[in-house]
Amino acid sequence: MRVGGVEPCGFRNLADSATELSDGITVFHGPNGAGKTNLLEAIYFGLVAHSCRGGRAGDMIRHGEDSGRVELNLEGAPGRVLLSSLDRGGERRHLLDGRPLSSALERPLVSVFLPERLQLVKGPPAHRRAHLDRLIAALWPARGDLHQRFGRALAQRNALVARVRGGHASSASLGAWDEELARAAEPLVKAREQAVEMLRAPFAGLAERLGVGSAEISYRSRVAADASAFAAELAERRTGDLGRGYTGHGPQLDEVALEREGRSLRRFGSQGQQRAALLALLLAERQALIDLGRPPPLMLLDDVMSELDAERRGLLCAALSDSGQALLTATDADQVPVRERAIAVANGRSTTLAVAA
Amino acid sequence: MQAGPISNLIAELSKLPGIGRRTAQRLAFHILRAEEGEALALADAIREVKEKVGLCEICFNLAEGPRCLICEDTRRDRSLICVVEEPADVIPIERTGEFGGVYHVLGGALSPIDGIDPEDLRITELLERVNGDVTEVVLATNHTTTGEATALHISEGLRDRVTVTRLASGLPVGADLEHTDEVTLGKALSGRRSLS
Ligand SMILES: Nc1ncnc2c1ncn2[C@@H]1O[C@H](COP(=O)(O)OP(=O)(O)OP(=O)(O)O)[C@@H](O)[C@H]1O
Ligand SMILES: [Mg+2]
Ligand SMILES: [Zn+2]
Fold first, then answer.
1. Is the ipTM beyond the 0.85 threshold?
2. B119 shares a domain with B42
């Protein structure tokens, strides 16, 4: 499944015109403010129907317009045309050949590197947990609902704990909710462990080669591996939970640690080390998908080359060019030494200057 | 704007599950145009169901009279009780033809978020029903978070008193019985596993 073309309309500063895309590596190059990042964002919005930059969705609509849309041409997919649109009233649509998508599997997976994504390394653990749980859904679609199931059980247990604390309910069914929470936790924790295990070696290797030094990703849940043991831990901590009014123990508090030389990259990493670690993480995830025989995600990499030296630029290109599709932005096309296609962007308009033979 | 009686009808219809405002309008105008006999038959059917159908005093399934047809049927095996959330869940299990026991309808599932606690369900009644004659209780609550927790809570209450089984999964996670086909449900019934 790949994106064969993108056509924005009323989207940021981009011209309302179609741009063809290739397999392999494509570079969007042009001066500051040209619209390169906007083009990546448009492709992301087309696939996912929300912005990859955070912020207000309405900001994507071109100044002075009431609505914006992006159409993507898909190739090798069950559907052909994926459309995302939004208007200033907050109305949003995401349609594949005119119908709502039945699952995320109907469109290509996508992985994004943007300055904002640094939160994944720098931000609180919740970011990394949520990211890992999304990766689980990509790696093993059948396990994609494990974190929702866990989330539902946790919300119910929290509601009961709060009501018991407030004197509005008896604790008679708390044991059942401990058990249900533990049963929902067990497969989620196992999936997280397996996913991180798949990332370990590629992350360490890529981080090393991208100049982070000896880096490691690890996940060790704070809860007992087996459901009945975790249920027993919950029972032991019941008094604490009832005092607090919510569940104070469980995989909802686990950390996915990213470390360099044994120390947290979040707390001690330099900006450059954090950026390189994020890139290594996204590439390791791509590798894990390939290792499972799943299609690699579409890689959207905004301005990754500017802080890498020539050798590391070459290394990144080599890592990306084995399969799949990667779209990179750069002020200068030569920052991306290996490329299938170069697209110049100026004043929101893109022109394909070169396609490799 | 419609006159009073019509907007009343639309308002009442749109309270039904799955009926939005527009569908309610279509239905209301359909009823308005229908022959008098046909339209009043619907009204009578609604009145009759409310007047005649209540809950079975034993199992809380729907019943015309004090007991439901299943509890009245002497061929049913009273040592085997299948616990479901809603009366509607009895129908698909009956359709499989795999179950010869009797039922117990809880009237919902535990859901602290919605303020549904054990006392809001017919759990005490179930525990009272399980006496020396009952040998097995099959928990056929939905395979959802609330259905699972309800099953766990009941099995705790029945511990060491009787064999408690759960419908084998094979039912998709998050499934409710009402929307499961007979073949899958039949397999789940014959492959039920012991919980305690
Ligand atoms: N909603 C919008 N409507 C119109 N123009 C917009 C909108 N949002 C942003 N822009 C314009 O888009 C331009 C920025 O585009 P973009 O961020 O894609 O630049 P870039 O090519 O990535 O530049 P850089 O190399 O500096 O990262 C700015 O000139 C900005 O004013
Ligand atoms: Mg940019
Ligand atoms: Zn009955």
1. no
2. no
In a domain, B87, yes or no: yes
- What pLDDT digit, counting tens, does each position of A288-332 carry? 999 999 999 999 999 999 989 999 999 999 999 888 999 999 999
Q: What pLDDT, in 10s, does the model give residues A124-156?
A: 999 999 999 999 999 999 898 999 999 999 999
Q: Full-prediction pTM beyond 0.90?
A: no
Residues in chain A: 357
The answer to whether residues B80 and B25 belong to one domain is no
CATH of the domain at B20: 1.10.8.420
Residue B46 contacts residue B101 (beta carbons within 8 Å): no
Shortest Cα–Cα distance, B118 to chain A (Å): 7
Strand partners, B196: none
Look at residue A4 and give its three-state secondary structure: strand
Compute the C-alpha angle A39/A304/A204, nearest 5°: 130
> Best mutation site among A164, A180, A242 for testing chain B: the one with the most B CBs within 10 Å?
A180
Strands B163-166 and B136-139: parallel
| A53 C-beta closer than 6 A to ligand 1 | no
A342: three-class secondary structure by DSSP? strand
Verify whether the Cβ–Cβ distance A176 to B149 is below 8 Å: yes
Q: Which two tokens stand for residue A56?
A: 């207000």
Rounded CA-CA distance B132/A25 in Å is 73
Decide if A270 contacts A261 (C-beta within 8 A): no
CB contact under 8 A, B118 and A163: no
